[in-house]
């Protein structure tokens, strides 16, 4: 557990607040070691605009990153065509994806112990003619895994999702025994591997109001969710539910659980973001690497103003470090 952790930090959309959030880290002595994956000229230009005195150091695999205040290690990435804060440019799209690829491949090779991502602008990337639905799906394809799980977390609450970015009308059809099984197995396994929880306790939300009200408000709980949960319980996974979502997120249930599993995006995430927006972290489970992210967008209106808040980034780094350390401990046999 004592070996140094090195995290790759992608700076995200060049016109957004990502570059300056990275620069804010240089204002303090840091642990773990951070390597910013970005254009050095972009970072230097933003630092100059904000009046920040930051010395940027070229980083190569095998080196320990700078952790001194006022210094920042950078893995330079070419291809950033525009560095203007607040004004997006689709010509930067391939550069943004290159930063993600370099960080993820570095994790797979062992150069980094995990990656933390600042926000990207999905619309601009798609305007460049590159199909892109988000970090999660991009990293899933790059790492070659069948299923990933989105989980957002604060210090007090973890919420994972069975389905993510789907229109509401498509959600019931997507709630299948196969998907629930895959997501639940990943959630349980990664809570053990990355969070050191020996026997995770998971609350599962129903799909319908009142969890279907015994079939009067929908039969997904009876026909799909409950039978699937019974099979998973037989595997030794500790599951409670399906529970009505309007009562699941109360202390009565949450005080005795390690995570909640919501059926769709806006069933679980509004609760979590109300409880901890600005200090929450987005975690991708099911990958062979550690990946965390901030819980907010590019905030183009704040870019270049010096008013951006790095609270969520600090949380993402702290959680990424904890996950990397837990995985190292698990690999060393410290957790059974």
Automatic annotation (TrEMBL):
Cofactor(s) this protein cannot do without? Zn(2+); Mg(2+); Co(2+)
Q: Which UniProt keywords apply?
A: Cobalt, Cytoplasm, Magnesium, Metal-binding, NAD, NADP, Oxidoreductase, Pyridoxine biosynthesis, Zinc
Q: Which GO CC annotations does the UniProt entry carry?
A: cytoplasm
Read off the SUPFAM superfamilies from this record. Answer: Isocitrate/Isopropylmalate dehydrogenase-like
What's a GO biological-process term for it? pyridoxine biosynthetic process
Q: Which reaction does it catalyse?
A: 4-(phosphooxy)-L-threonine + NAD(+) = 3-amino-2-oxopropyl phosphate + CO2 + NADH
Main enzyme class: oxidoreductase
The entry marks the following residues as binding substrate, namely 135-136, 273, 282, 291
Cell location: Cytoplasm
| Functional pathway | Cofactor biosynthesis; pyridoxine 5'-phosphate biosynthesis; pyridoxine 5'-phosphate from D-erythrose 4-phosphate: step 4/5
What does the note under cofactor report? Binds 1 divalent metal cation per subunit. Can use ions such as Zn(2+), Mg(2+) or Co(2+).
Question: Is-annotated flag, keyword Transcription regulation?
Answer: no
| One Gene Ontology term of the molecular function aspect | cobalt ion binding
Where along the chain is a divalent metal cation bound? 165, 210, 265
Q: Name one Pfam family in it.
A: PdxA
What PANTHER family does this protein map onto? 4-HYDROXYTHREONINE-4-PHOSPHATE DEHYDROGENASE
Another remark in the UniProt entry says: The active site is located at the dimer interface.
Q: Describe its assembly.
A: Homodimer.
Which family would the database say this protein is a member of?
A: Belongs to the PdxA family.
Q: What does this protein do?
A: Catalyzes the NAD(P)-dependent oxidation of 4-(phosphooxy)-L-threonine (HTP) into 2-amino-3-oxo-4-(phosphooxy)butyric acid which spontaneously decarboxylates to form 3-amino-2-oxopropyl phosphate (AHAP).
Protein name (record)? 4-hydroxythreonine-4-phosphate dehydrogenase
Gene that encodes it: pdxA
